[in-house]
Amino acid sequence: MKQYAGIDVSLEYSSVCVMDADGRIVREAKVLSEPDGVAMKRIGLEAGPLSQWLHAAMAKAGLAVELIETRHVRAAFKTMPVKTDKKDARGIAQLMRLGWFRPVHCRSLPAQEVRALLTGRKLIQGKLHDIEMSIRGILRGFGLKVGPTTRRTYAARIRELIEGHPTLEAIAASLLKVRDALADEFAGFERKLRALARQDDNARRLMTTPGVGVVVALTFASAVDAPERFRSSRAVGPHFGLTPKKYQSGETDYSGRISKIDDVGVRTALYEAANVILTRPVKGSDLKSWALAVARRAGPRKARVALARKLAVVLHHMLRDKTNFIPHKATSAMAA
Q1: What's this model's pTM, rounded to 2 decimal places?
Q2: Alpha-carbon separation of residue 285 from 46, 156, 295 (angstroms)
Q3: Tens digit of each residue's pLDDT, the chain (336 residues)
Q4: Which CATH fold would you assign to the domain 3-98?
Q5: How far is CA 196 from the centre of its chain?
Q6: Please, which residues have CB within 8 angstroms of residue 183's CB and are 6 or more apart in sequence?
Q7: What residue segments make up the domains of the chain, in order of their start?
Q8: φ, ψ of residue 13 in degrees (nearest 5)
Q9: Alpha-carbon distance values, 18 to 7, 37, 75, 291, 335 (Å)
Q10: CA atoms of 256 and 90, how far apart (whole Å)
Q11: What's phi and psi for 255, nearest 5 deg?
């Protein structure tokens, strides 16, 4: 008899519901959130931070387990007037039984490690920015305006402004120490990522593209992880939410803004790379010429989004075929 299991994963315990092919509940239970605590033949897990490692361990143990798209799960559960872990497990089991789900790729351990490094770097960068803006805000209350500075001149400018203000000197001294510590840790993350990119063939390959540096290359490569999981390179843009939403019903038919689904970090990285290509002097390529033509026709903001989407296609193509960036199509034709 075919059986389907839904698991609502929590930190300590997970709710499990097992259904047969007719939708009858065979068993419900709470188990430890460990791979050894679950033994089923067909299992569905809602994608999330707690599901990645559990999915990997269960798959390694030979269990048929699927990660389910979170948006699909939430949409299916909207009709439930009462939400509990037990009911969530039932709903996931029903989705598995009926096939109303889209499986999510579970990243490999190396890809997860790269993502963890990028997340740590982003966290330190955000806190560093918060400290600097907080110091500016404190001094502004006393009529002291910091003005434009660089990373190197910031501390000297603060000390210059607070000279002769004992209270402000004490406050700034403590906050500048925190800033220095964060700056050192941020520089450490930068060194680790650069060293990682030098050792990664995919990252070095992607960095041959204009506007693509260490962070963009590692972000995209770790998010794609397995290039073969996409039917074609054109499917990458929609996967990362870089294509317009579409609504059609009766006489109503319009396209909205980009969907912004999936990984916001990848969209941000691609958008920043597109902005570099459009606004800074980079080596000439068909990619920049195409983006400039879009900017003249539709404006710079739409051009950046369009170029980010095109970059996703190009970068995936490079990962899949293991090729470096080719600036001009004519060069490619001559090489062929």
Answers
A1: 0.80
A2: 42, 42, 16
A3: 677 788 887 777 788 888 888 888 888 888 777 765 554 556 777 777 667 777 777 777 777 777 777 776 777 677 777 778 787 788 877 777 777 677 777 788 899 899 999 999 999 999 999 999 999 999 999 999 999 999 999 999 999 999 999 999 999 999 999 999 999 999 999 999 999 999 999 999 999 999 999 999 999 999 999 999 999 999 999 999 999 888 888 878 888 889 888 889 999 999 999 999 999 887 778 899 999 999 999 999 999 999 999 999 999 999 999 999 988 875 444 343
A4: Nucleotidyltransferase; domain 5 (3.30.420)
A5: 18
A6: 128, 151
A7: 3-98, 109-199, 204-335
A8: -125, 150
A9: 9, 14, 21, 52, 58
A10: 34
A11: -110, 135
DSSP conformation class of 211: T
Tokens of 266: 């990848």
Q: Residue 256: name the closest of 243, 267, 265 by CA.
A: 243
* Residue 323 tokens, joined: 């090729």
Distance CA 199, CA 192 (A): 11
As a whole number of Å, the end-to-end CA separation of the chain is 55
Residue type, 156: A
268-272 own/partner pairs: CB under 8 Å, 24+ apart: 269/215, 269/216, 269/219, 269/220, 270/216, 270/220, 270/240, 270/242, 270/308, 270/309, 270/311, 270/312, 271/304, 271/305, 271/308, 272/216
Report which of 42, 46, 50 is spatially closest to residue 75, judged by C-alpha positions.
46
* Residue 82, Ramachandran bin (φ over 0: left; ψ between -120 and 50: alpha; else beta): beta
Structure tokens at 235: 């499917």
Q: Is 295 within 8 Å of 274 (Cβ atoms)?
A: no
Determine the Cα–Cα distance for residues 241 and 254; give it in Å rounded to an integer.
Answer: 17
Those residues with Cβ within 8 angstroms of residue 46's Cβ, 6 or more apart along the chain or in another chain: 8, 9, 67, 68, 70, 73, 88, 92
Provide the sign of the torsion angle of the four alpha carbons 82, 83, 84, 90, taken in this order: positive
Cβ atoms of residues 274 and 314 within 8 Å: no
Compute the distance between CA of residue 223 and CA of residue 240 in angstroms, rounded to an integer. Answer: 9
